[in-house]
Prior knowledge:
Helices cover 51% and strands 17% of the residues. By secondary structure, the protein is α+β, with helices and mostly antiparallel strands. A three-stranded mixed sheet has the order 1-3-2. Helix 2 packs across helix 3 and helix 3 (73-88) packs across helix 4 (97-117).
Amino acid sequence: MGSPDGELSVVILDDVxxxxxxxxxxxxxxxxxxxxxxxxxxxxxxxxxxxxGDVVISMDTAEREAEQAGISLETRFMELLVHGILHLLGFDxxxxxxxxxxxxxxxxxxxxxxxxxx
Length: 118
């Protein structure tokens, strides 16, 4: 996907922590499951092109979603991590249904590969 030497950070928070980030940086109230903060966008994107950005995951929300879906927390966490990484790589599901379809397809391809190696 064009980033063999890409670097990212993963931050694990509770619902209170992610809600604070969601409000402060995205002006959205409440908690969410995952937020991605890309470093390859904006006026300073070329300073360190290997830095993809940050993926922030709420374990509280991930745990609830895993329970509701009848899957393990590990599986849900991996789904959210892949989702966040795809956002760092420029995928988007919020602006266009076709882009959302492509993002979902890429997510499934990656998760199949990950599960195949487990």
